[in-house]
Specification:
alpha+beta; Alpha-Beta Plaits; 9-stranded mixed sheet; 22 helices; 4 domains; 17 strands; Arc Repressor Mutant, subunit A; 6-stranded mixed sheet
């Protein structure tokens, strides 16, 4: 959950025109209406808004309005000395009452963790210690690059070990997939480092690290930004210690269950009766195969991917093809995207998987996508000497050059992955990719409708595809996760503004109370309330009801959100 932090109004140095724009934004006016009021062109309005958003540190109209309210509130707080202490105390009590439930609340999260255990140093001579120090420094550097690119978290342990995790404070649709990729990358990197290292560490038959993965449901304070003592940390650390001798990551079965398509999973059987191997305090385990292994083919589950024949025709003729994966609930989009990626990899396509960061800011997406391309195609990127006018065009240029070596599939994961990737590379980037043999597959969250999944074929230019073809598929059965958690709804809540998130949690726990009544009880300014409703309708969580007002999109959505929020006895005392 993010909060917009603003400096006092007088330190922002807004021009008179920018203040006019801010006032009109608060009134909820469109670009055209603002242009009419100010007697300027609509294109000029867009330019002013772009500069204004950068000054405010936001990326949407709704967040600009929220930021404006915070600025005004800050300015008023500095000027208003007439308010008595009794009045201030009353105001604080009202505010606490309005937000108390959220402040004291706890929630379920599914956390996928990766632990790295460092092998003991048998030889304690200065040369070996120096080499080990250099290795640990290089390891920390690669961990920080991976964690930042994949939008995860990391903590370092005494002795050089570490624990990385996904799912808190931001959840993603593909957290377990991210954990598997990170584990594979670290294992491969450490093996390569050891093979090319001279001296005792390089000659040592024992691997430098062991890598373990585990997923677990965790109870977390709703507003907590850090995670300590998670059960998934403990399990992953146990598996990391056992994994050293195997030279491959070890995983618990839950991670395998929620990331079934991301690896060529290997089972471990005991010598006695071919029984399943169980690790104490963890349970049954599996081996994460190397990234070069042949991935599982699930095309039959999706009817053999009938839409790909049309896409392949376009790619064979030298034109890029964009596929939008539209689904509700959102989790199915990840399954289908994974399955398409595995299938085309078997057709000798190069595969680039891009994980969208939880923050939808364009600069964050630019940095994340660029880092992921460098991690997956590092040798190619290091050889590229071309200079591009912008980071977005650089990303498009790099993947365009990669496609020259053979057909390329770009898989973009996230709630609004299609819009995030289009926005990141821009129109110039889309044009650059249009004449390359590239398949772009990206999720595009459906705003309305019942549970469904479909693929929309958009051709080489997704922004100008008025006659796109739609292929409806059968919704697959999604296995229930522990505690009945639905990760996709957790990710959706984490992507909302604080007001919208609080409203959803309250409404899910008060099904008999009209949603607009709850919003009124929250005592937010009118423009904030409007921005909240707009955000929730555009996300697909709520829709206009027949009798007026708004309601949850469907009963399943309300139940899924309610189940994420939990009450703990005695939490008020905590």
């Amino acid at each position: 959950m993010t909060t917009i932090k603003r400096e006092p109004a007088q330190q922002l140095s807004l021009s008179a025109r920018q203040r006019q724009l801010l006032d009109l934004l608060i009134e909820g006016k469109s670009n055209k209406e603002i242009a009419d009021d100010l007697k300027i062109e609509a294109g000029t309005v867009k330019q002013h808004l772009f500069v204004l958003f950068r000054k405010l540190g936001v990326n949407s109209r709704a967040k600009a309005v929220i930021a404006a309210a915070q600025i005004m509130k800050s300015a008023m707080a500095g000027q208003d000395d007439s308010k008595s202490s009794v009045q201030k105390l009353k105001s604080t009590k009202v505010s606490s009452k309005a937000t108390g439930k959220s402040a004291e609340g706890y929630s379920w999260r599914l956390v996928s963790s990766v632990a790295v255990s460092i092998s003991d140093l048998n030889d304690l001579n200065p040369s070996a210690i120096s080499m080990r120090d250099r290795f640990l420094k290089a390891l920390r550097g690669i961990i920080e690059r991976l964690v930042d690119a994949l939008d995860g978290q990391v903590t370092y342990l005494p002795g050089g070990g570490s624990v990385m995790w996904f799912g808190h404070p931001r959840a993603h649709l593909d957290d377990a997939d991210r954990a598997v990729y990170l584990a594979q990358y670290l294992q491969s990197w450490a093996s390569h480092y050891q093979q090319h290292l001279e001296g005792n560490l390089g000659n040592n038959a024992t691997p430098l690290i062991g890598v373990g993965l585990a997923s677990n449901t965790e109870i977390v304070a709703e507003k907590a930004t850090e995670l300590f003592g998670a059960e998934s940390f403990r399990k992953a650390s146990i598996l990391a210690r056992h994994a050293k001798a195997l030279k491959m990551p070890l995983s618990d079965l839950l991670t395998k269950q929620i990331a079934p398509m991301s690896s060529a999973w290997m089972e471990i059987k005991s010598k006695e009766g071919n029984k399943e191997v169980v690790v104490k305090d963890v349970g049954p385990i599996a081996i994460v195969g190397p990234s070069s292994s042949l991935l599982p083919d699930a095309s039959l589950r999706w009817g053999g991917f009938p839409f790909l024949s049309n896409a392949f025709e376009g790619i064979d003729s030298g034109l890029a093809q964009w596929l939008a994966v539209e689904s509700w609930p959102p989790a199915a989009a990840t399954l289908l995207t994974d399955a398409i990626g595995n299938y085309v990899a078997g057709k000798n396509y190069q595969v680039l998987r891009l994980r969208t960061p939880g923050s939808y800011r364009r600069d964050r997406a630019l940095a994340s996508f660029a880092a992921q391309i460098e991690l997956q195609f590092g040798d190619f990127v290091s050889r590229s000497e071309k200079i591009y006018p912008s980071q977005g065009e650089r990303i498009a240029g790099l993947v365009s050059e990669i496609a020259k070596a053979g057909p390329l599939a770009i898989l973009v994961y996230g709630l609004k992955a299609l819009e995030a990737f289009k926005s990141t590379i821009g129109e110039a980037g889309i044009d650059r990719l249009a004449s390359r043999q590239i398949l772009i597959v990206a999720a595009n969250l459906q705003d309305h409708g019942s549970s469904q999944i479909a693929v929309r074929l958009l051709g080489p230019k997704p922004n100008s595809a008025p006659f796109s073809r739609v292929f409806n598929l059968q919704m697959p059965a999604i296995d229930a996760l522990p505690e009945g958690i639905q990760v996709d709804f957790r990710a959706m809540l984490d992507s909302l503004s604080p007001i919208s998130k609080e409203l959803m949690l309250r409404a899910a726990n008060e099904p008999e109370t009209p949603l607009l009544n709850i919003l009124t009880q929250m005592n937010e300014p009118h423009h904030k309330a409007q921005a909240c409703i707009q955000e929730l309708t555009s996300s697909g969580l709520i829709a206009a009801s027949q009798g007026g007002g708004f309601e949850f999109r469907d009963l399943g959505t309300a139940q899924a959100i309610k189940h994420l929020s939990i009450a703990i006895a005695g939490s008020e005392a905590a």
